[in-house]
Amino acid sequence: MSVSARLAELGVDLPGVVPPVAAYIPAKRHGDLVYTSGQLPMVQGTLPATGKVGESEGLVDPADAKTLARQCALNALAAAAALVGGVDNLAGVLKITGFVASVPEFTGQPGVINGASEFLGEVFGEAGAHARSAVGVPVLPLDSPVEVEVVFAVA
Fold first, then answer.
1. pTM for the whole thing?
2. Which residue of 13, 59, 93, 142 has the smallest Cβ count within 10 Å?
3. Where is the Endoribonuclease L-PSP/chorismate mutase-like domain positioned along the sequence (predicted)?
4. Is 153 helix (H, G, I), strand (E, B) or coil?
5. Which letter, b or e, does each residue of 133-151 get, where b requires 16 or more Cβ atoms within 10 Å of its Cβ?
6. Using one digit for the tens of pLDDT, what is the confidence trace for 2-21?
7. Which domains, ranges and CATH numbers included, belong to the chain?
């Protein structure tokens, strides 16, 4: 099944490419690889949540952060697809690096970044299997709870 057909089956519309918030480009191709810049969970130009992830009152709930990581992956997919002429020109996912702005006692970063990994696995099937890092950090740009970058293989 093509990537575009799988997205349609999942009921997922590819968003527009999120404009950079600093001096970088959303994605860069080198040979048969596309590297995305770190993608924030922007939806129509805004962050749906800000702050640090944790399990206490006033923090971003880990389950909500997982959903935000999924949005980051969708934004990365949009950036890569725009660069190579559409999602069907992407062959799969090689590497995901996820950053979670979290309080020091929070150790659930891998579960949060599963939002990105699981989504891209649903989209690409076996070609979505990838290497990954999930890193806790004190703060991210615009006070985003999560940021995800992806390396895609080009078909």
1. 0.97
2. 13
3. 5-148
4. strand
5. ebebeeebeeebbbbbbbb
6. 999 999 999 999 999 999 98
7. 3-11+44-154 (3.30.1330.40)
